[in-house]
Amino acid sequence: MKMDIFHDNPMLAGVRQMLGAFATQQIRPIAATHDREESMPWDLMRKAQGFGMTQTAVVDGRKALTGKDDDGDDGKDGSAKKPKSQARLGVAGSEELAYGCAGICLAIGGSGLAASPVARMGTEEQKQEFRRLLKGDDEKGHIRVAAMALSEPSTGSDISGLSTTARPDGDHYVINGHKQWITNGQSASVYVVWANTDPSAGRAGVRGFIVARGTPGLVPGRKETKLGIRASETAQVHFEDCRVHKDMMLGAGQSSEGLGDTKKMLDSTRPMVGAQAVGIARAAFEYLVERVQGGTMQGTPLAQHQRVAFELAEMEMEIQAARALVHKAAWMADHHMDNVRMASIAKAYGAKVAQDVTSRALTLLGEEALEPGHPVEKWYRDAKIYDIFEGTAQIQRRIIARSIFGVNPT
Ligand SMILES: Cc1cc2nc3c(=O)[nH]c(=O)nc-3n(C[C@H](O)[C@H](O)[C@H](O)COP(=O)(O)OP(=O)(O)OC[C@H]3O[C@@H](n4cnc5c(N)ncnc54)[C@H](O)[C@@H]3O)c2cc1C
Q: Is the CB of 231 under 6 A from ligand 1?
């Protein structure tokens, strides 16, 4: 049984149950095809919108998924801050969808990466514009999606080294640079691109800009072929003298922390990424449990073989621990606590468990699981990416170490 921190919150429990059913009934049956074809599940993404998983859900808050406003508040009126449910909703949903297929989970939720800084730093006008650009269908008849373009060919982990520039020019900024490994990079209708407005100011000069598809100078580039999460599109994006009105700069006119805001944005998404990894591990674990329950070896039920039973016991310990960490990180965020350390722990440990469980599952099943298209082979490939994106395994350890010692390890 899944450890349930939602037993006292029927709304959260209900959403999780609904997404679990969606994963089993709608995602699983098409997962292998989209993995093999490296194609986005556009029809299912439209269906998911119907279930409330809209591309603007992060900007709209909890309202989109539950029809209700978030019950928390930020205590600005001097009252004690009430807890929210958004982060816990995010991790519960992420685990369920990734249990169905991590690539499809990212296809459904990938726009959230771009929506997150808009929700955090955008003005009401910018939020409206972001919503407007995601309305209706695109020229291919697909639902519209968004992309968050931060990483560059020479800058992944070290985001302070961005080389994309945004030069002020009257009421506009002129953006030049190349972005790589961008989720929805080819298909997006709206991009949030990070560029340096003042290279002499270093990190403090970095700002995000909302850029509509079709803006001259915004050129979607090559789509990448990937090891895993192949139902999610990853591509290059180029900016060649791309003029963007200054009103579309996030945090304009506010005391923005520049790159600091970008880092906070990643802190808020890491527990959800850890939860996706838990979903992959659970998928492999449940597959094995079913196989072991029905199987025999030398006349004895497989479950009575200590070697097999202990392997599964070990996996169950790891999965439960990873889920507990993810839930703690989300619980802290919902209770307005600083969760930087926990978010990194949850993400890093989730990724480690997903790789360990899927690797053990491959070993236990043997050669049959090496066949292309075998579900365990797919989960094994999907798991690896969780060590790389949204902060690599090493970067998470740097963050955790810095939170312990107060200094960056060199
Ligand atoms: C499927 C996928 C989707 C992605 N989607 C997006 C997206 O939508 N938007 C976006 O902007 N980016 C996206 N990325 C990019 C992703 O965030 C980067 O790949 C990631 O940050 C790592 O950067 P890098 O690949 O350049 O590796 P590098 O930063 O070059 O790191 C290479 C190796 O060095 C290690 N390393 C680097 N710095 C340190 C250090 N200080 N101490 C110790 N070790 C270190 C790393 O851990 C890694 O092992 C995506 C990536 C993938 C694979």
A: no
The residues with which 242 forms a beta bridge, in sequence order, are: 175
Distance CA 339, CA 332 (A): 6
Contact 172, 164 (CB under 8 A): no
Residues 90-125 have pLDDT tens digits of 999 999 999 999 999 999 999 999 998 998 889 999
Q: Does the CB atom of residue 113 touch ligand 1 within 6 A?
A: yes
| Strand intervals (E) in 116-256 | 146-149, 165-169, 172-183, 190-196, 206-212, 218-223, 234-245
pLDDT value at residue 194? 94
Q: How far apart are CA 156 and CA 264, in angstroms?
A: 16
Interval 53-86: pLDDT, tens: 888 888 887 555 555 555 555 555 555 678 888 8
Q: Is the CB of 237 under 6 A from ligand 1?
A: no
**What pLDDT is attached to residue 57?**
82
Residue type present at position 300: T
Question: Which of 181, 239, 269 has the most ligand 1 atoms within 8 A of CB, as the residue to mutate?
Answer: 181
Atom 38 in ligand 1: which residue has the minimum CA distance? Answer: 157
For a pocket test of ligand 1, which of 389, 399, 402 has the largest count of ligand atoms closer than 8 A to its C-beta?
389
**Is the shortest distance between the CB of 53 and ligand 1 below 6 Å?**
no
Q: For the domain made up of 146-248, give the CATH fold.
A: Butyryl-CoA Dehydrogenase, subunit A; domain 2 (2.40.110)
Token pair recorded at residue 153: 């060919």
- Specify whether 390 is catalytic: yes
* Least confident window among 1-15, 172-186, 315-329, 379-393: 1-15
Fold of the domain built from segment(s) 259-405: Butyryl-CoA Dehydrogenase, subunit A; domain 3 (1.20.140)
| Cα separation, 75 vs 70, whole angstroms | 14
For the entire predicted model, the pTM comes to 0.93
Name the residue at shortest CA distance from atom 50 of ligand 1. Answer: 181
- Tens of pLDDT, residues 277-306: 999 999 999 999 999 998 888 888 989 999
User: Which ligand 1 atom is at minimum distance from the Cα of 232?
Assistant: 1
The domain locations on the chain are 10-120, 146-248, 259-405
CATH number of 10-120: 1.10.540.10
